[in-house]
Inverse folding.
């Protein structure tokens, strides 16, 4: 089946297909469904035979046992380096979005920040750890520039890193403990995501909301130094109370709140478990356990990490730009054609994109002027048009004054999306996109990308992640302050306290605010 969207028509979230009832009696698309194709070599759920899972408690114990005492010396150099990259990438994304209108709206809706022992990055002052974890996770999600894992279909950073930072700063942990907690949090979120992928997304559940809290609970428990039984209780509590987030609302203004709720719940679960509160291993016992409720055919064997297998954090991708990940391969191809130079959209007659089916279904719509931020970041058409216009794509494109550039919106309506059946079969092993740009002067140029920039097969270098960080915080820090912040966090010794690093970053934010206030006062005096 070949599906295409014509310019000016919104792309549906689910592809047209035969309908059947899911495991809870609700109709959803089946047949040649996007999610079966999305998992590449994975057969349709109806064609798989689930492996018996008679003891959920034992499975969870086997997953958590090597993570409870995880320490930095037990990790390889590349894994430690990847954890630092993920941490710094997340910090840059948090700071970049912290002053966006959507972030400030969440702040107003949440009430005034009370004084506490944890930091919301990019904001002055401090607040309670759970509140810091919530806001940092919301900011991390806002611009869709966060890392992710293809085979789990989620963003493990969204709960694990905000929780690890909040606990690490307030609980007196070291940098080494912070990084070990992040690795452990990623491991739990990704393993559960893989055990449920693609079934839970096909059933309509958003993995960041369901699996994210479990990763956050693991990160918090590791930094608290909780033993195995307390950690099991924390993970079980997170599973018991995980928010039922819906895929079909992923383009709504409420989407970043899912990340915030996942982080706050993960931290609360870790705290509750230390006080003897929370759920037990029955949260994972079939036939009505966590996995069975979210997927018609879960694969619990994926919870187990094989000996000498890479850690989950080693397999995550990093994004070079904001925007939904499915839009990045087409953008990579388009920027190859334009030489990554700013291009006048009026010189382009049309853009034709052929890519895998999930990309069309999940990011195939075209926003209009006034659309929510999530509709812009989750639109392949908008992301391509904005990238062509700017010669790249950064947080500044999504600021209120630049979001609805008429030239970008007009070019986005001239982008046509079509399925490449071969690319659909290969996904997620490859993330292929073929882009053809027809210029008004008669030229036509084509480029094909098999792996998105930032995927494990085509990873970003340290310098590339650093350049993204500097660009992300450019609106908040001077170049010197941003460079100093990167260098300080990148080279921090394992034994250094997290609170000291955070304090230095908070001082940098405060100095920038004071400098701006002085400049503003000078301008006001000059006007008078």
């Amino acid at each position: 089946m070949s599906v295409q969207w014509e310019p000016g028509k919104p792309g549906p979230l689910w592809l047209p297909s035969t309908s059947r009832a899911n495991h809870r009696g609700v109709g959803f698309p089946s047949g040649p469904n996007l999610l079966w194709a999305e998992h590449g070599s994975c057969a349709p759920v109806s064609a798989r035979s689930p492996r018996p899972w008679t003891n959920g408690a034992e499975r969870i114990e086997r997953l958590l046992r090597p993570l409870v005492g995880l320490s930095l010396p037990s990790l390889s150099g590349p894994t430690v380096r990847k954890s630092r990259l993920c941490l710094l990438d997340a910090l840059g994304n948090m700071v970049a979005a912290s002053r966006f209108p959507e972030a400030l709206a969440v702040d107003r809706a949440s009430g005034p920040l009370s004084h506490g022992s944890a930091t919301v990055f990019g904001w002055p002052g401090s607040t309670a750890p759970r509140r810091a974890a919530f806001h940092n996770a919301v900011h991390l999600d806002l611009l869709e520039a966060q890392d992710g894992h293809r085979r789990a279909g989620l963003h493990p950073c969204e709960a694990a890193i905000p929780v690890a930072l909040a606990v690490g700063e307030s609980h007196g942990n070291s940098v080494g403990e912070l990084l070990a907690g992040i690795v452990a949090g990623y491991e739990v979120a990704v393993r559960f995501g893989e055990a449920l992928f693609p079934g839970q997304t096909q059933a309509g559940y958003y993995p960041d909301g369901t699996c994210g809290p479990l990763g956050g609970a693991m990160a918090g428990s590791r930094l608290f130094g909780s033993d195995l039984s307390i950690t099991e209780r924390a993970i079980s509590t997170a599973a018991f109370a995980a928010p039922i987030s819906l895929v079909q609302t992923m383009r709504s203004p409420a989407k970043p709140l899912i990340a915030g709720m996942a982080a706050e719940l993960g931290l609360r679960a870790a705290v509750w478990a230390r006080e003897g509160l929370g759920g037990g291993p029955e949260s994972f016992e079939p036939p009505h356990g966590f996995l069975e409720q979210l997927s018609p055919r879960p694969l619990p064997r994926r919870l187990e990490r094989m000996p000498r297998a890479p850690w989950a954090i080693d397999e995550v991708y990093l994004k070079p730009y904001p925007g939904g990940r499915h839009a990045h391969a087409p953008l990579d191809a388009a920027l190859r054609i334009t030489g990554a130079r700013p291009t006048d959209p009026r010189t382009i007659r049309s853009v034709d994109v052929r890519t895998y089916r999930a990309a069309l279904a999940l990011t195939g719509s075209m926003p209009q002027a006034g659309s929510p931020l999530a509709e812009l970041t989750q639109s392949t058409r908008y992301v391509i048009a904005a990238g062509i216009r700017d010669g790249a794509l950064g947080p500044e494109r999504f600021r209120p004054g630049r979001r609805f550039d008429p030239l970008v919106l007009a070019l986005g309506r001239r982008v046509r999306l079509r399925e490449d059946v071969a690319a659909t079969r290969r996904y997620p092993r490859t993330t292929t996109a073929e882009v053809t740009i027809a210029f008004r002067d008669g030229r036509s140029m084509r480029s094909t990308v098999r792996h998105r920039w930032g995927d494990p097969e085509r990873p970003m270098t340290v310098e590339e992640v650093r350049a993204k960080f500097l660009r992300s915080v450019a609106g908040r820090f001077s170049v010197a302050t941003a460079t100093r912040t990167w260098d300080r966090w990148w080279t921090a010794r394992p034994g250094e306290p997290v609170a000291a690093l955070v304090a230095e970053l908070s001082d940098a934010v405060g100095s920038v605010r004071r400098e701006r206030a002085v400049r503003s006062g000078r301008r006001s005096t000059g006007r008078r």
Remarks:
- Residues 498-527 form the longest helix (30 residues).
- Residues 326 and 359 are 5 Å apart (CA to CA).
- The chain is about 50% helix and 5% strand.
